[in-house]
C-alpha cells in the first residue's frame, strides 16, 4: 500500500476539514498528494458552531442561521439590547458542515481518506511520520488537529467551558426569532461563571445552552435540571419537547500551544486556535487557515505562518482567564460591567483579538482595575518565557 504523501492531515473534524476544503478551493494543493486520517468519518450533528462576524465567512453557504440582534441579561433580570453594529451571530450545524466539505473534497483524486486510529506523529530526517493502528505514513508536512491535554507549565491556568445544549420545540415559544440571548446570567452562580445562550432557530424551535466556566464538570442531572428551571421559570415556556441535545467541554487555557514543531503544523484547538477566555475556536481557526493559504501562495510553504492573535491579545486573554479562575471578580459581574459599560461591537472585536488600543482602553476602563493588576503582570511575565 502506498504510504508516501506530500501532506498528511491528522483529524478530519472542524479544522482538518476546513483546511482541506479551503486549500483545494484555493488551488494550492492541486499538485499535492494528500491523505486525511481520522478514527471516525463524521456525519452526525455532534456540534453546533457559533461565531460572530462582520465579514463574509469561508463557510457562508453552510450557515444555518444568522442573527443581527443580540441581548445580554444580568443576574438581576435586567436585559440590554447590544449595539453590535455590523456584526452578526452565525450558527453552523456540524452535520451540514461535514456533508458540505466531504461532498467537495471527496471528488479530488489527489486526496485519500482513511479511517484509522493515529498512535503517534513525529518528525523524521526527511519530513514526518504518522503511525496508525494499521500503517506507517510519511510526508513532507503533517497538519495535526488531534487534541491531547497539554502538560501545563508553571503559572498556566486551565478551566473548562462545559455546556449542555438542547433544541426545544414548543407551540408557545414566545421568543423573537431574530434576537439571541448572547449571555444570560439569570441562574445560580454557585459553580462558577454560569450563563445561558438562547438561539431561536425558527418560530417554534430554539437552542438553549447552559454553560459554565469552571474547573470541574457537574453531575449530568444538574445540567438537565438547570436547563429545565431556566426554560420554564425564566423563558416562561411551560410545555416543550427536546428534539436534539449536545454536551461539550472546551479547554480554556493560556498554555502556549506550539503552532509548528519541525514539519508538523498544529491547527484547531491543539494549534492554540481556541481563545482561552471564551472557548471560541471556529473563526480563529479560519483566520489561521487563511494565513496558511497565504503562505503557500507567497512562499510555497506552510512554515512560518503569521499568527493572527498578537502577543498583546494573548496577554489580555491570559489575564481575563486568570481573573475568571481567581473567582474574586465574579464572572457574571465582570461580563455585566463589560457589556453594560462599554460598546458591544468593541467587545466583540476585543474577544476576536482584533481591537485597537482605543477600543481596548474603553473595555479596560469598564472593569474593576484592582482585580487585574496581579493577573496582568503574571501574564506579562509568562508571555516572555
Ligand atoms: C459540543 C461542542 C460545541 C462547540 N461549539 C463551538 C462554538 O459554538 N463556537 C466555537 O467557536 N467553538 C465551539 N466549540 C469548540 C471548537 O470549535 C470545536 O471543539 C472544534 O471541533 C475544534 O476543532 P478541531 O479541529 O480542533 O477538533 P475536532 O473538530 O474535534 O477534530 C479533531 C478530529 O480528530 C479526530 N481524532 C482524535 N483523536 C484521534 C486519533 N487518535 N486518531 C485519529 N483521529 C483522531 C477526531 O475524530 C476529530 O474528527 C465547540 C466544541 C464542542 C465540543
Description:
Helix content is 29%, strand content 30%. The protein is globular and about 60 Å long. It has helices at 14-25, 94-105, 220-234, 282-299, 311-326, 331-341, 344-351, 357-364, 373-384; strands at residues 4-10, 34-38, 48-53, 65-67, 69-73, 79-81, 88-93, 111-115, 118-124, 127-132, 136-144, 158-169, 179-184, 193-200, 205-214, 241-253, 260-261, 264-266. Helix 1 (14-25) runs parallel beside helix 4. By secondary structure, it is α/β, with parallel strands linked by helices. A hairpin with a 3-residue loop joins strand 10 (127-132) and strand 11 (136-144). The chain folds into 3 domains: 4-47 and 92-153 and 257-299, FAD/NAD(P)-binding domain (3-Layer(bba) Sandwich); 158-252, D-Amino Acid Oxidase, Chain A, domain 2; 311-384. Strands 1, 2, 8, 9, 10, 11, 17 and 18 form an 8-stranded mixed sheet that branches. The chain has a 7-stranded mixed sheet with strand order 6-5-13-14-15-12-16, sandwiched between helices. A 3-stranded antiparallel sheet has the order 3-7-4. Flavin-adenine dinucleotide binds at residues 11-16, 37-40, 42, 47-51, 117-118, 145-147, 246, 248, 250, 268-269, 280-282.
**Approximate helicity band:** 25-40%
Overall pLDDT score: 96
Total separate domains = 3
- Major sheet details: 8 strands, mixed
Q: Could you say what the CATH architecture of the largest domain is?
A: 3-Layer(bba) Sandwich
Q: Give the distance, in angstroms, between the N- and C-terminal Cα atoms.
A: 45 Å
Quantity of strands, as a count: 18
Q: At the first level of CATH, what is the class of the largest domain?
A: Alpha Beta
Shape: globular
Class from helix and strand fractions? alpha/beta
CATH superfamily of the largest domain: FAD/NAD(P)-binding domain
Strand content: 25-35%
Rounded radius of gyration (Å): 21 Å
Bound molecules: flavin-adenine dinucleotide
CATH fold name of the largest domain, please?
Answer: FAD/NAD(P)-binding domain
- SSE string, helices as H and strands as E: EHEEEEEEHEEEEEEEEHEEEHHHHHH
Q: Unreliable stretches, pLDDT < 50, 5 or more residues?
A: none
Number of helices: 9
